[in-house]
Amino acid sequence: MKFTVHRQLSYETFRKVVPRRFSSHIRKSDLADENIALIVFHHDHVVLSSHAQRAFEQTRAVSERIRIAVGHGFTREALDLLAGHGFRVYSERDWPWTDATYKSITSAMTKEFELTAEARHSRYTEEINPKLDKLTRGICEASAMEDESLERLCYQDLLAYYQETIRYGYWHPALTKSIADFTPDAATAVRYYQLVLEQARKLDDSTHKILICMAERLFDLKQIEKAAACLRDGRAEALYRGDEEFVRRADEVLRESQA
C-alpha cells in the first residue's frame, strides 16, 4: 500500500495536493486552520490497520491541529487507529470491513495459480458457468413454486459450490456476483458485491452491473448516500458502455427508492 505524507500545509497548498476525487468530500469549514497534516493512501484498495500504522509511524511527531487522511476505503481497525490519533478520515467507499473479514474474503484471490485474465475467463465459461447456471436455476424454480425450504437448500448448494471453487483459487467476478445476487440478507450481499468489485477491477472488467445491483441492496439497508453514489457511478458507466438495459434498470432503482 503506497501512501504519501504531507506536513505543515496551508489551505491553498492542501487543495493542490489532495486528489481531486476527494475535493467534494472535504468542506472549507473543515480546514479553518492554516496548519494541516495530510496522509494520502493511493490506489483503489482497502486500507488495513497495518497500512495505517506504517503511515502513522511517519507522523508520530505531528503537531498540526488539523489532520486529514484520505483513501478509497478503510477497515474499522484502520479507522479507529487514525481517529485515535486525531485524523479525520475521508473515503470514497465506506464499507463495513474489518481486517480479519477483508483478509479472509480476499485470501483466495492471492492463492490462485497465477492465472491470466484470459485463462480465468476461459475456466469460468467452460467449467464454472454450466454448474452455476444449474444451481441458480434451481433457486429460481424453488422461488417460483414459493417453496422457501427448497429455496434455502438450493442456496446452500450454491454457497457450497462457491466456497469449494474459491478454495482452489478459481474465483471469478461472475461467480461471486451470483452469490451476491441470491444472498437473502442485504448486509451480507453488500459484502459480496464489494468483493465482486475488487475481483472485477483485478481483471479490468466492467463494474456498472455490480454497482447498480449493490445500490439496490444499499437502498434496502437505508444507506441512502452510499446507494446514490453506487447508482450514479454505475449508471454513468452503463451510459459509457452503451448498456441501455442497465441504464433503464438504474433509472428504475432510483424511481423505486423515491417512491
Key features of this structure:
single chain, 259 residues, alpha/beta, Serine Threonine Protein Phosphatase 5, Tetratricopeptide repeat, 2 domains, 4-stranded mixed beta sheet, two-stranded parallel ribbon, 11 helices, 59% helix
Describe the protein:
The protein is of the alpha/beta class and 259 residues long. The protein folds into 2 domains: 3-94, no CATH class; 107-258, Serine Threonine Protein Phosphatase 5, Tetratricopeptide repeat (Alpha Horseshoe), CATH 1.25.40.10. It contains 11 helices and 6 strands. The protein has helices at residues 11-17, 49-57, 76-84, 99-106, 117-144, 148-167, 173-182, 186-202, 208-220, 224-241, 244-258; strands at residues 3-9, 36-41, 46-47, 66-71, 73-74, 88-91. A 4-stranded mixed β-sheet has the order 1-2-4-6, sandwiched between helices. Helix 6 (148-167) packs antiparallel against helix 7, helix 7 runs antiparallel to helix 8 and helix 9 (208-220) runs antiparallel to helix 10. The radius of gyration is 21 Å and the shape is elongated.
Briefly characterize the structure:
This protein is of the alpha/beta class.
Helices and strands in order:
Blueprint: E1 3-9, H1 11-17, E2 36-41, E3 46-47, H2 49-57, E4 66-71, E5 73-74, H3 76-84, E6 88-91, H4 99-106, H5 117-144, H6 148-167, H7 173-182, H8 186-202, H9 208-220, H10 224-241, H11 244-258
Parallel strand pairs: 2-4, 3-5, 4-6
Antiparallel strand pairs: 1-2
